[in-house]
Design brief:
The protein is built from eight helices and ten strands. With 254 residues, the chain is of the alpha+beta class.
Length: 254
Amino acid sequence: MSDYLKTAIVTASVPMNDGRTMLADAIDLLTERYEFGFRGYGGAARLCFDGDKLVDELCLDGFPTIDSLGRATLEQLVNQHRWLSLTGSFRFEGARRLFDINLALYPTFDPERPVCLISHLDASLYKDLRDDDWHRLNHDAADRMRSLGISLGGHDLTDGFNAQNLESFHDVVTFDGAALKEALLHPASVRAAYKGGVITPGTICGIKKALLTLDQLRPIWGPAEYFETIRGHSILSSMIDYEFDDDDDDDAVS
């Protein structure tokens, strides 16, 4: 498993004002619950595009700490730069180390819903999910990923979210609620998923239960973790223990 493959929690597309609210709420949540901050590195940056291609990130000076980015300041930055990126670190309660995170308002190029919120997580959060053979689930790591996915992706203002494993924002696949529903009802083939550019549910995925219910998801996705959030999202998670037949293992060895 690549040490550089990072899970990104990507929300369905929303209007610009909603995206700005979601970013501000994510900052507040991370600050209050996980001690989010810049800590001498990171900060705010503008995402620069040439057409629909991300070409650069320009650092924005004047924001030495997360406290310097209140909601009023954040609103001004979004109005001025639109596509904004915030990089910092956070910690889980009781953890001795910090985890990096990059929050971004990212364009979807949809005229009505032009933005999504991306939460690009530290690579170790994905790597820690399973052992070296990818067979055994680390339940503590899964709890962390589940909590972050729902907290950062399951906002009232978006139709859903999906975890995408990617190295950089260049690989992001954006979507709206209708596209996410279609992807969940009619999963992409392995060949299509390998080629990229399609929506494939990652470690955790959520969609408004008004669009899809758990009863609709279970027959399609089989063994998985299913539940609903108090904010009204149906959740599908692949973070489960795999079961292996000992006889099958013996056959494979022989």
